[in-house]
Specification:
Blueprint lengths: L9 E5 L3 E6 L2 E6 L5 E7 L5 E9 L4 E5 L2 E3 L9 H13 L1 E13 L8 E12 L12 E6 L3 H10 L3 E2 L2 H10 L20
Parallel strand pairs: 4-9, 6-11
Antiparallel strand pairs: 1-2, 2-3, 4-7, 5-6, 5-10, 8-9
Length: 195
């Protein structure tokens, strides 16, 4: 058992989205909403294109390539992982999923933050808008053929983009469940509207 497990947190700073705390000698960052939860959405269009988003990330000072993602509970306390995934996918990409499945939840940087992310597989996508995010996100949506996604990502890396390393886990979980079994790929005939 760690000596830090039962120590009380000392609040060093709290802002609108993050707080800095100290437990013993350990400093870490915490999200102030949704118990530190975020969602990352793996989504493939009916044309077998993987949806990626490009945006400028202030902490890095560079443009990044990521899968659609967002915070849980940043707008209301009763938010769910599923609701956040549906909302964020539509806001960022303009695609609405007919079904979302939460596959796995885990920490993003356990030595620095309490943030945990849920990998969510979105299926039965329907185009409902242009995406681009909200406010000043200025998100650019990329539709990349699934078979070309890894090489496309490396091309973007060579062009100077930062790549979220969770991209490769997301690509793997498009095809697989976290236990390694193959994901059951549903067809449009499997949707409630077609039964």
């Amino acid at each position: 058992m760690s000596t830090h497990e039962h120590e009380v947190s000392e609040l060093l700073y709290e802002g609108k989205w993050l707080r800095l705390v100290k437990r013993g000698q350990w400093e870490s960052c915490e999200r102030v909403h949704g118990e530190g939860m975020a969602v990352l959405i793996m989504a493939v269009t009916p044309n077998d294109d993987v949806l990626f988003v490009e945006q400028y990330r202030v902490p890095l000072g560079r443009r990044t390539i990521e899968m659609p993602a967002g915070l849980v509970g940043d707008e209301h306390a009763h938010d769910t992982l599923e609701a956040a995934a549906i909302r964020e996918l539509e806001e960022e990409t303009g695609w609405r999923p007919g079904k979302v499945d939460v596959l796995l939840i885990g920490p993003t940087s356990s030595g620095m933050s309490n943030e945990r992310i849920a990998f969510v597989r979105a299926t039965h996508l329907v185009k409902v808008g242009e995406g681009g995010g909200v406010a000043d996100e200025n998100i650019k949506v990329h539709h990349v053929p699934r078979s070309e996604a890894p090489s496309w990502l490396m091309q973007k890396h060579a062009q100077g983009f930062e790549l979220d390393l969770k991209l490769w886990a997301g690509l793997w979980m498009i095809e697989h469940n976290p236990d390694g079994s193959l994901a059951a790929h549903e067809t449009d005939a499997d949707t409630p509207a077609h039964r």
